[in-house]
Amino acid sequence: QTLDKKAVTSLILKEIHFPKPKAPTDIISTVEFNHTGELLATGDKGGRVVIFQREQESKNQVHRRGEYNVYSTFQSHEPEFDYLKSLEIEEKINKIRWLPQQNAAYFLLSTNDKTVKLWKVSERDKRPEGYNLKDEEGRLRDPATITTLRVPVLRPMDLMVEATPRRVFANAHTYHINSISVNSDYETYMSADDLRINLWNFEITNQSFNIVDIKPANMEELTEVITAAEFHPHHCNTFVYSSSKGTIRLCDMRASALCDRHTKFFEEPEDPSNRSFFSEIISSISDVKFSHSGRYIMTRDYLTVKVWDLNMENRPIETYQVHDYLRSKLCSLYENDCIFDKFECVWNGSDSVIMTGSYNNFFRMFDRNTKRDVTLEASRENSKPRAILKPRKVCVGGKRRKDEISVDSLDFSKKILHTAWHPSENIIAVAATNNLYIFQDKVN
Amino acid sequence: MAERVCQGEFSVRVLATDGELGSEVQRRWEGIMVGGLKRKHSDLEEEEEKDGKWDWSPAGLRNYQQALLRISLDKVQQRSLGPRAPSLLRHVLIHNTLQQLQASIHMSTAPALPPEPLFLGEEDFSLSATIGSILRELETSMDETESPQNQVAPTGLQNEVLPQPDPVFLEALSSRYLGDSGLDDFFLDIDTSAVEKEPALAPLDPPHSLFCAPGSWEWNELDHIMEIILGS
User: Fold this and answer.
1) Domains, chain A, ordered by start
2) Which residue of B has its CA nearest to A79?
């Protein structure tokens, strides 16, 4: 249907830059562990959600412990057409966020550019048999033929996992939703688009509260947009949002209904020696994440990851270079649009290691305590299952050593934008275009 | 509908329209933009790597700026292709970069200029930059030609050129030549008819670098363009 037209459009725009992936709709667009790490959800460009479940530990099959297998697959969003503006609304899943588990069922929020949905994922392993009014095939029986009554009994059946949409939160965003975040009160959540942030109650779908609005009266004066937003992990009144100018604002919802005035404003002064025409673009923050402790926030811009202490607004406490060798390539990266790529960043469970992606299917980890860092590659060619990942190195200068890769050989079509870290163990999920890699720490 | 016209090592994205007026301006733009965008993109990158900082020769810097301008304007046009709503983040970042480029180009040609007026929208920026360059050529040509017959024309034209063009005309011109572009897509939920556009042009001092060689036939061509643009 519309699939062919979309494929053609992306072909025209991207063809001269890098080869088109085989199946565009299979590109993974978000990855998220649930709060226990038992489940791992992925969303893709085709609007599908695939949930993986970790195998239970078993004495018989020790080597299979911790493997993730497909648990449920469902179509979360479909492409839509806005007739008023003559625009397609992409079905790509921008974000998935899990709710903490409160009963046997699992709940998650998934969103595309315009609509957030609450999905219930539940198991069914029994079915009722022995109805009085229906026969075994489900056809109604003639009441006149019923002479005795019986109580239906539940009989076991093959496990079926079903996903049902429980709430649809629509028509609240004029611009594209970039973030959703579940509040620590587990009753509300927020959704953020380029210019506004809305607060929702899970039970109410026909209204939401607007808590941030940075749209100028005259759109021609627009110079800054919201790029990401997140609630504090423990304080249900506090949230942060980042901007395209490299700033982070922390807001307290107790101060006023509309949080247009921030409580804290985080911005690092610009380094004049690094100034270029691309300074603003590369300072745009693509992701912001609270640490699990709630004491720090981490931000990702095009070339660096920064850790900020909530108590210090004038500069970050740590800055990590992700791929500084790209600084001299910014003009090319601007021309082929790579400079607009939005990389995400994640904390490990203890907030001691941070991870983010790069190009050539590389991803980077930084140990905050030892200050050591490592570059790894998510690639089928270079790793057999269960082999230990070999650290990679990008060569910037003249002589290239045997295992190094030179900057000019990097494949910019292979970008790792989405990664996730298990909440308590050293298990990571890395999305490389349309492949999902799950790596575990070998030390046991 | 945009057409890509390649001339040697560089390309100019020409904004064509239906009708005679459009094609007239189209041909003139090709002729004028030739001189500025010679450098190949890969050469730019080598320059960038070499120094990393902005202490190039004025000519190198100018070529770099022009190339960035070209790339940015291409991106603005690209945005309107495709059925999906364009990314507001990308638009804002490109717009801010264009604004920086505009400021730096004007600073490099005439340091004594007063600050630029408020940004209008990227369609007006591309238009004002091109109009600005046309005006600069006129000024240069006026300075360098000595024949008496041309002295009469510059005097008359100078009075027309320097005053600000009619903003209503600017808007009509931009919407015709640049199609449904600019921030209209993002305005859809508000009424934009009340938005006023300020005139983009301020009087410019004569530049030091030229887009085209002065000469009487060039002068006549430019004269012709100015008549079209100013509707006189």
Assistant:
1) 11-441 (2.130.10.10)
2) B84
